[in-house]
Structure formats: structure tokens, C-alpha cells
Specification:
alpha/beta; 373 residues; 11 helices; single chain; globular
């Protein structure tokens, strides 16, 4: 019986074919895009599936039981992912983050982590190897992830109130299990742990202070993320965005905050420290304070498409090169060619849209669940 062909889904736009440039890549040459931004951070999606149905990412009415997820044959193998990652490292990448969907749903993910943990920069240094998870499977997997070579985890958590959290994940998953996963990750040494809270006005802004109180003094870094217009299915509207500046004021009124310097170039979060020494919090403000100017991130989708922006509408097909016999040098040259042509800066341009613009009016973009956050 012939394998059923799954038609191209509108949430996975057709990739752009990649060709190896005739001019060879100069080894050790500095790689920068059209705006002078270097390539330093690679985010790798290992699955397009998730066991949560958060409205701002994978709303249940779209991602239902009939949704056409990618067939196993379309996914990059661990060996293919590692081979691509090695070429990115040769081009300047120093940090790799595994994402999804929910990356811990990918079977034997520890094997991939072991492979990536063996990669070294041209001067022999290990990579910063991290993973973002919803925390649902973290309690049972934390030690194995650490043993495989993972260094840190980031956990998504949109509130401490169990009713609010169950409503937001839309699969009735209890907050206690995510908190247990964070504790297990801390015990395994997967720190410093970052905890990401997407703030959606009218939904969970009342959870800001409880979250801040809970993680204050814990050694874990809480980060507040403005609700973003990623993809085309989350019904984004600007009036549901709570600006980071407002969140800072809310927290600082009870627990005064002091601004901190960025930890590294291209860092997405603006850092603030508790004045009483209780640690720090971060604010990711891609809607109200775009940070495109120093964005150094590339994204590799589950099926091997290279995306240059979280808000991209088209990827570049690396899988065909991988499976078509391209050499490592040819693969690296193709990646470099794409990066050098990059001029993406969607968040900066968003301000030109009408104030009440929704994702439906600003173009068909790839879903966050497909390329990770």
C-alpha cells in the first residue's frame, strides 16, 4: 500500500530551494548579514508536536486531532541535525537551543543531546547547549538530560494559579507537575533555570506578582514575554499586549528593581535586579521595544528548513542538500550565503502597522510551534 501523501499545510509555507554558491566559503572569514549582524545562536526544532494547546501558540481549534503533523520520514534524523549543527558552529554559532513543539516528546532526545555535546568550536571550546520545555515531562527526564550533556533548561510557565494555568494550556495539565519539573531540573544541575511567562492582557496579568514573589530569591530567573503576533492562528491583537514597561512598574511597586547590563550581545531579555538582592528578572519586549538590531539567531525547523526570523514567511531548504549528497563544505557555503543575504527585522517594521492590526492582516507567517520560540 502506497504511503499517504500529506499535502502542504498552510502553516508550513513552501521552502525556498537552496543552491550552493559557486564561490567557495573562505575558512575563518567573518560572517555577517546585510545589517552587520553575526551568526551566534542556532535554535533547532526537533518536533512539531506538543502536548499543550496554549492559545497563543497552538490553539486547539486549529491543532486538533486531524491536524496533519509531519510524517517521521520528513523529520531530520539526529545524525542529520548534528551534521548541520556542526556547519553552523564552523560559521560562528556558539549557542544551540533545542525547541519544538515540545522537544521532550521527541523519542530518545538524549541521544541527540549527547551528539551535540561533543561539538566544539574551531578553537576547541564546547557549546552552550540548552533546551526550552513546557515542563510537563521534565521531572522524569531532568537527570537523563543532564547526564547526556545538556547544560541548562528554560521552562514555560504562564501562571501559578492552577485554574488559570489549566485554562491556558487547554489540556487540563496541573501547575504542580511543572513546578516539580523545575525542582528536578534544579536538583540535576540544569541551571541557572529560566522560567518564561507570556503575559496576555485579560488572561493572566494578575499572575505577574504571584510569579515574581514565588521565584524571588530562588536562584531561578523569571522572564516576562510580551504576547507576540507569531504565525497566523493565535488571533493576536495589540490590545492584548501588556508592555514590559507596565510589568516592570507593577513588580517594582512591591519589590523595587534596578536595571542591569546585558549578559551578552544579542540577548533577547532586558535584565533587572531586585534591589534587595533577591536575584533578577528579565523582560522580552519584541512588540514594544524591538531588538532586531543585534539579533544573531537562526532557526532550523523539524524538517530541515532554515528560517532567519521568528516571524518569517519562508524557509530555506537544507534537507534537500543534506539528502542529496552535498559535502560539508557545500552545506556550510549554502548556509553562509543565506545568512549573508539576511535583512529580516520584522519587529522593528511592525510599528508601521495599524494599532489594531492582527496577525491575519500582516502576512502568512510560519507558526512558532514549527520553528520554536
Amino acid at each position: 500500500m502506497a504511503e499517504r501523501v500529506i499535502p502542504l499545510h498552510p502553516h508550513r509555507p513552501a521552502p525556498q530551494a537552496l543552491h550552493v554558491p559557486a564561490q567557495a566559503l573562505v575558512p575563518g572569514a567573518s560572517l555577517a548579514d546585510q545589517l552587520g549582524r553575526p551568526l551566534r545562536d542556532l535554535r533547532i526544532s526537533v518536533t512539531d508536536r506538543c502536548n499543550f494547546r496554549c492559545s497563543y501558540c497552538m490553539p486547539k481549534e486549529v491543532f486538533d486531532k486531524d491536524y496533519p503533523y509531519l510524517p517521521q520520514s520528513a523529520l531530520l534524523s539526529f545524525e542529520e541535525i548534528t551534521r548541520v549543527a556542526q556547519q553552523f558552529v564552523q560559521l560562528g554559532v556558539r549557542k544551540i537551543r533545542l525547541t519544538g513543539g515540545e522537544p521532550l516528546l521527541r523519542k530518545n532526545i538524549e541521544i541527540l543531546i549527547e551528539q551535540l555535546a561533543q561539538l566544539r568550536t574551531p578553537d576547541g571550546q564546547p557549546l552552550d547547549l540548552t533546551l526550552t520545555t513546557n515542563g510537563s515531562l521534565l521531572a522524569r527526564k531532568a537527570q537523563a538530560l543532564k547526564d547526556a550533556g545538556l547544560q541548562r533548561v528554560t521552562v514555560s510557565l504562564d501562571g501559578l494559579d492552577d485554574a488559570v494555568f489549566r485554562r491556558m494550556n487547554d489540556v487540563d495539565f496541573p501547575v504542580a507537575e511543572v513546578l516539580a519539573g523545575i525542582e528536578a531540573a534544579q536538583a540535576a544541575g540544569l541551571g541557572p533555570i529560566k522560567v518564561n511567562m507570556v503575559v496576555k492582557r485579560g488572561t493572566n496579568e494578575h499572575e505577574i506578582l504571584p510569579m515574581a514573589r514565588h521565584f524571588h530569591g530562588s536562584g531561578q530567573v523569571l522572564r516576562f514575554i510580551e504576547y507576540m503576533d507569531v504565525g497566523a492562528t493565535n488571533g493576536w491583537r495589540m490590545n492584548e499586549v501588556m508592555p514590559s514597561a507596565e510589568v516592570v512598574r507593577t513588580i517594582s511597586a512591591e519589590m523595587p528593581l534596578l536595571p542591569m547590563e546585558a549578559a551578552a550581545p544579542g540577548e533577547t531579555a532586558e535584565r533587572w535586579a531586585y534591589a534587595d538582592g533577591g536575584g533578577e528578572v528579565g523582560f522580552i519586549s519584541s512588540v514594544t521595544q524591538a531588538f532586531c538590531g543585534d539579533c544573531n539567531r537562526a532557526r532550523l525547523s523539524t524538517e530541515g528548513q532554515l528560517y532567519l526570523c521568528l516571524f518569517a514567511s519562508q524557509g530555506h531548504d537544507l534537507r534537500t542538500l543534506l539528502r542529496g549528497g552535498a559535502s560539508d563544505a557545500e552545506l556550510a557555503a549554502a548556509i553562509a550565503h543565506v545568512w549573508q543575504g539576511r535583512s529580516d527585522r520584522y519587529s522593528q517594521l511592525r510599528s508601521q502597522l495599524p494599532a489594531d492590526a492582527s496577525s491575519a492582516t500582516s502576512g502568512r507567517r510560519v507558526e512558532m510551534s514549527y520553528i520554536g520560540g
